[in-house]
Amino acid sequence: MNERAKERELRIGPAHMPVLRGRSRPVAKVTEAERGLLAGMLRLMYDSKGLGLAAPQVGIDARLIVVDIGAGPLQLVNPVIEQRGRKTSGRAEGCLSLPKISVTVRRPESVVVLAHDEQDRPVRFSAAGLLSRVVQHEIDHLDGTLIIDYLPWFKRRVQCRQLGIAPRISRQRTRGLRGALRGKKGSLLLSYLMIQ
Ligand SMILES: [Zn+2]
């Protein structure tokens, strides 16, 4: 295995990192740098006894996730959920970025995922059960969504305050605001709301 990418040493960043609340950037090309990053993410995930990890959790703004539910590692670049099954179920989820917090999250039980692998080859697969749930949780991270965003608003406010992080503004609400706010003053207010 002389081709093994140079693994990057990483650590999980604090919950208040802005990169955890934004939409991560797509990866243009998978190079040795991305492979090293993915290898470092896998190592950290195993060391932390997690089932998945997304690049924003280690402070990196890139659409990269790793997952292993015990069936071998998956390294996914620019993953997209192409299809969601109709049946949903709720299950308690934890997150390496939010230690000691558990939230019951309702998600589709099955999904079809499109992505590229660590060799930049396109992959498409269906996932059900735990794999589906973990992949959805990690893709959520790439869009700035955390498990606390699935709480009712009043509980979310309390959690956000305790963690020192901004309550996420849903895209719908942002769109509404964008429509409602006109002119320079409006866009300034909007940027304030987006970055808080
Ligand atoms: Zn997480």
Under CATH, the topology of the largest domain can be stated as: Peptide Deformylase
Major sheet description: 5 strands, antiparallel
Q: What is the straight-line distance between the termini?
A: 46 Å
* Beta-strand proportion: 15-25%
Strand order of the largest sheet: 1-2-3-6-7
Q: What is the alpha-carbon Rg in Å? A: 17 Å
Q: Supply the CATH class of the largest domain.
A: Alpha Beta
Would you report the number of β strands? Answer: 7
- String of helices and strands: HEEEEEEEHHHH
Q: What is the residue-mean pLDDT, rounded to a whole number?
A: 87
**SS element count, helices:** 5
Describe the secondary-structure layout.
Elements: H1 32-47, E1 52-54, E2 64-67, E3 74-84, E4 88-93, E5 103-108, E6 110-116, E7 122-128, H2 129-142, H3 153-163, H4 171-180, H5 183-195
Antiparallel strand pairs: 1-2, 2-3, 3-6, 4-5, 6-7
Helix pairs in contact: 4-5
The structure holds zinc ion.
